[in-house]
Queue: 4 jobs
Job 1
Amino acid sequence: MTIKPGAANKKPRPGRLRIVAGKWRSRLLDIAEVPGLRPTSERVRETLFNWLAPSIQGARCLDLFAGTGALGFEALSRGATSVIFVENSRRAAKAIEKSAQILDASGAVIHCGDAAEYVRNAQPASFDILFLDPPFADDRLEALCRQIDEHGILAPGGRVYLEQDRAKPETPLPDRWRVQKNKTAGKVRYMLVEVGS
């Protein structure tokens, strides 16, 4: 078998993600080539946004650990007023910025930085919906949930979407958080939580 010169050194092309529904339905967005970047699958996004259908219109959203921006762009596509994308990787944040420009997403704000630091500095009751999908190797989910609760960044009745490795134990949640929906798909456990007053 002959190998073309340089073929062994060729990097695979980064993938693309498709927006499931809304004004940008079926639009394809590039995914940054960042190790460990794992976009939420179309199937899971479809289920999640069916759950959120009654509350997505006009919602103010925070996409922590934004990664590819899949959740935030899906929210904007379906009628959310604004989404702040918080992403630690400069390369991933640049890709989200580029996608926002391509879509002319006026409600998108991209913040390159640490999720916990962003929560510490956020204004109280700033958000209606929070997407919380950290890398599976990140073990801060429980601490971050407590921090979100203590800082009160969600409006009364706000909702939190959590995604985690199905192989790990379910993350203990703050007392005021009530699980509304809880499902698994492949290696992923995902749930929707309502935050009480």
Job 2
Amino acid sequence: MTKTIVHLLRHGEVHNPTGVLYGRLPGFRLSETGKRQALTVAEYLADHDITHVVASPLQRAQETAGPIAGSHRLELATDDRLIESANVFEGKRVSVGDGALRDPRNWPYLRDPFTPSWGEPYLQIAHRMLAAAHRARAAAVGHEAVCVSHQLPVWTLRRYLEGKRLWHDPRNRQCSLASLTSLHFDDERLVRISYAEPAGTSDPKNTGA
């Protein structure tokens, strides 16, 4: 039996002085804190048997993955399936509890929270993330892989794998900045999910990541 671990890493803190939901918008880089978080995770994984590092194409994910790939002398790969979910509120100041979701102008986008109607369907996110995870598992079979992605995609995949409903309260996500949600495989069979916060915890309401 061959054991493989796929670490799903949420990127570090982003420089976002205007507080918008940045989603897939280009140009959002790591903050100085985010850069330190990326280095902390790289140090945490330094003694791990990492043989494959892959990231979302977005800048913040690439910058988070860089120190890990560098410390293991690996070429950084990119997988579009690890990208942040699409969202109609990109570029706007919309966050949990700020009142924006009570604005009547936003109501047409909020008609179906279970799919959801404001962005990429949860099931679609789970399926593309699972495909990316299995591709990374195959690339690192018998070793460990790191996939750098974003909060909602990582959390959606975890809920999918745990057999939980995909719609949820964003304030209850266990997916801090620079956290690791690790999938443990025996051959191709998922046997365990573990979670770690090498860079410490962060506010789960920080969802635009």
Job 3
Amino acid sequence: MFLTEIFRMALGSLRTNKLRSALTILGVAIGVFSVIGVMTSLSAIQGSIETGLSFLGSNIFQLAKYPVINNGGDAEDKYRNRKDISLDNANEFVRLMEGQASAIALKCFDGGRPVSYGRVTLQGRTVVGTNEFFLTANSYAIAYGRNISPDDVEFGRPVTVVGASIQKKLFPSETPLGKTINVHSKPYVIIGVMAEKGSSFGNSQDELVLVPITKFFSDFGHENRTINLAIQSTSQATYNNTLDKAIGAMRAARGLKLGQDNDFEIYSNDTLLTAFAQVADTVRIGAFVISAIALLAAGIGIMNIMLVSVTERTREIGVRKAIGARKYDIIKQFLIEAVLLSELGGLAGILIGVVGGNSVALYFDMTMIFPWFWAITGLVVCSVIGIGFGSYPAWKAASLHPIEALRYE
């Protein structure tokens, strides 16, 4: 029998039992989709992080009360019970690090605050108490106006630098410089507007309101507020030395004694990548487990439909064997039918998975990708499933005695 004829017969058999074949293909498609969809979205997110990570600027590390990713449980209680990094701690740290770093940014965040001008109110904006180094530490630039100055911080002036999105919504047809806006009912004069930065992971980076950190604490209070410090070394060559000195300075500022563990976290771009990679690996393992269960169920479905097909086509098998079909031909015929079922499900799963995964990438404004490695791996796995679960039905069909098969009704 020619291979083309076998494929034609296999397709004919699938068309004869459309619903049964469709349900079997759907089972395989779900298993493949669960892996391809997850891998596509994770690859898109990871690629975006690796090529465009801008959470911290160049040669910068950060000290904070909480880690970049909190896994919850007992560890969460441990971090929560730490003392907040207060403004006094931060100022003492800056004093101890004088001359050791090119920039030290202080940052304290307060999310979900209303910002208004005239009759227009923007809800849910993030207010950041900071100093003149926030832009450097977070890769922002001033579009026009000026940045927060050391004098603004020292004297606690009610001035603010706003994100591009806030400027567009509150001042669509006039300059915002010199205008007074209300930030959570507190008046601030706009002195500058940050250059547009776009979105990251679906969240706009242009919705920030920067105010001098001294004025921030004066207006919004000190309770339950902790400061993050971003430290920039003078160069990559001095990075490790600056990091060592910063750890010692923070321990001194926090009053830690020799032998006590650090009560603060240290992270950089590399640790952000590592943290994401750990989360991604956990998600991948979960996707593999779900996919393996789904594909096992799909494989059992393939074996079931092939056994039913063998029973329904017993007389056909007898006729073929009677006119000279070899045992090998029968096995090949049914194996190709099983593999075809599995591969059609695999192709459907890959298509849906790629579309679903890239939908996530589009939602987060990331570059779409096609996971060639996982797609090829999915097709290979589907072939293995088709062969593995189709072997017994194929062997059973090939082992039928032609005379007994011809008598079957």
Job 4
Amino acid sequence: MSVYSTLCFLAAAAMLIAFVNSKIGKMQTTIAITAGSLILSLLIIIAGHNGWFHLEDIAATQISKINFEDFLLKGILGFLLFAGGLGIKLPHLEDQKWEITVLALGATLFSTFFIGFSLWGICQLIGIQLDLIYCLLFGALISPTDPIAVLAIVKKMNAPRRISTQIEGESLFNDGFGLVIFVTMFTIAFGDTAPTVMGVTQLFLQEAIGGIAYGFILGLIFHYLISSTNDHSMELLLTIGIPSAGYAFAEVIHVSGPLAMVVSGIMIGNWTRYIGFSKESEEHLDHFWELVDEFLNGVLFLLIGMTMLDFSFHQEDWVLMAIAIPLVLVSRYLSIQLPYVGFSRYRQYNPMSVKILTWGGLRGGLALAMAMAIPAGVMVIPEKGIDVREIILVMTYAVVVFSILIQGSTITPLIEKAKVWELQNK
């Protein structure tokens, strides 16, 4: 079966789960799809181990044909981030610019090193010889919150404006900085030459600043293209050109495509929406991109659940998975609480802010895609065939699944408490 056919069947399965959930479960759609795919994966594995029927190898083979890293990072990510950027209100972003900047940069850096050094110390205590650089690599890929998971779950719960803006803005903008940290750690771990301060600075300027500048230029070009036509269909079709050809060209010129999509999405959503689109297109813009967003998210979250079929689990993996989840949560709490000590000196915040930002700092497909980019073969426990890639991958998977299923499904009471406080203090 071809990759295209596999994706078609996965999309149909995602839509079926979403439909059944809408009639019976009433869970948030992406949570239901992830849970459904995990249950299906477990049933296939259990059935195979008990000899009922042998679909495990067939399913794993089909899933492995889809290069998850390329499918997300070089494929649908541009569409999902552009759709997220369209929904960001620029005045709200302006009001929270310093908070978002500190959280996207400082919190990510703090979390990377806290997780890295803590994991290394724990591994030494339990007798797993995982080098510090690999622990820091895990910290780098798991620290940035995932904009796809955050926007798909938290955004739709109608949190208070400031909290919602902070968590959405942080998740959309921490990609560039998180990528620089990850690439630096990756180069130290697997590269032939050691990175320099000049090299890291150049990488940051090229990827992050270059991505923002490119996104602005891209948004400007498409603003004028959209403004030059009154054809309703053409106006909406032109918006597709940004996350497709525009995102692909970002890779050609070596700038951050994700940041470019966020910036251009914000421009189209806040500028072109009101002075470039015809009245009919303005009314249908959000509906059109919500449909694209829902469809691609369905396929992505189904893949996250089904990816388990391609893993091998050892006893040491389960131990590290159990360690990774609370470690990432503690790191997230500290990286939010410390900046809020400073924030609170200048303005009043909802008392639930730290809790919601901590519990709502979801991880998703982006972290998993970066973990899958780690090369295999660097052995940690040779006698059992456990390498660095396997350890980092299973820890990442545990954190991702926990954040989507547990954190995503239990954050509502925190948001409701925040809403009550907002009403009482208006």
